[in-house]
Amino acid sequence: MSTTTSPQDLDFLGSRARILTDAQATAGRLGLIDMISVPAGHMPPLHVHHTEDEGFYVLEGEVTLLLPDRSVECGPGDFVLAPRGVPHAYRVGERPARWLVVSSPAGFERFVAAVAALDELDPAVLGAVAAEHDIEILGPPGTLP
């Protein structure tokens, strides 16, 4: 058994993140990311993962997972799953938040690293990088499922 921890924090869409484990360490079974500090009010683009389920385990703050048929309010100790193939986004509450993201199978962590490595982030580039990782951007931040 092996473990992986990125040696540094990454800037992922304006949030501080760290990859805790990846496909190489888990034989492709899962990836685990610590979303260390996500700003109050933060909301990513509406998107859908075509190959991974994405789970959120909230450690600090409040996060609302926005799904097509419901919104799920989450606080510390709550877990919610965004299944593959289901469009979703999230909105952070009035204070910064922290959560763990687990992807199964692994793969989302590669997207996080690729986005963090970009020199400049614009919607077209983000969409192209997302597509390379089987993630489809469906609308800009603020778009609801």
In short:
Helix content is 13%, strand content 43%.
Helix-strand blueprint:
Layout: E1 10-12, E2 15-21, E3 31-38, E4 45-49, E5 53-60, E6 63-66, E7 71-74, E8 79-82, E9 89-92, E10 97-104, H1 108-116, H2 123-132, E11 135-141
Antiparallel strand pairs: 1-2, 2-3, 3-10, 4-11, 5-8, 5-10, 6-7, 6-9
Would you give an account of this structure?
The protein has about 140 residues and is mostly beta strands. Helices cover about 15% and strands about 45% of the residues. It has a single domain (about 10-135), classed as Jelly Rolls (Sandwich). The chain has helices at about 110-115, 125-130, and strands at about 10, 15-20, 30-40, 45-50, 55-60, 65, 70-75, 80, 90, 95-105, 135-140. The strands form three sheets. It has a six-stranded antiparallel beta sheet with strand order 1-2-3-10-5-8, covered by helices on one side. The chain is globular, with a radius of gyration of 14 Å.
